């Protein structure tokens, strides 16, 4: 039951915070640089698939080891931040390397956002799982 709580909490926190970040932090930057490439409405199925998979992999590498080894929330945040920086950095630096209108501002904004988002979501999920589960 604790794993179910951990997954739902992490997934829910990630969705809620990312909705705000995408709306008010990331989207304005991307609009300035590649706005003509962006859809009016996002494709929900691939977005949901990403969120579901990302949360599961985050649990595998960070949150479940934290619970089973009784790691601190600071440990969770640090490891999740590293995971988020690697994941978001892979997308951003690859895009910057091959797309002509990609910018350093986009890279810095999205990698910073993904690092923060992943750290907070993992720590919040572990905290709630310990509290409830």
Automatic annotation (TrEMBL):
It holds the Pfam family DUF2177. This is DUF2177 family protein. The chain crosses the membrane at residues 5-25, 45-66, 73-91, 111-132. It comes from Sulfitobacter aestuariivivens. The keyword Lipid biosynthesis does not apply. InterPro entries: DUF2177_membr. Coiled coil: none annotated. Signal peptide: none annotated. The keyword Membrane applies. Keywords: Membrane, Transmembrane, Transmembrane helix.
């Amino acid at each position: 039951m604790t794993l179910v709580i951990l997954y739902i909490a992490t997934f829910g926190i990630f969705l809620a915070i990312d909705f705000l970040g995408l709306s008010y932090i990331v989207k304005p930057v991307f609009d300035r640089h590649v706005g003509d490439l962006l859809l009016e409405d996002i494709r929900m199925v691939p977005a949901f698939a990403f969120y579901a998979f990302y949360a599961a992999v985050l649990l595998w590498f960070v949150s479940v080891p934290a619970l089973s080894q009784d790691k601190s929330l600071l440990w969770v945040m640090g490891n999740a931040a590293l995971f988020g920086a690697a994941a978001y950095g892979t997308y951003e630096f690859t895009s910057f390397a091959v797309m002509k209108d990609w910018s350093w501002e986009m890279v810095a904004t999205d990698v910073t956002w993904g690092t923060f988002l992943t750290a907070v979501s993992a720590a919040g999920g572990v905290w709630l799982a310990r509290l409830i589960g």
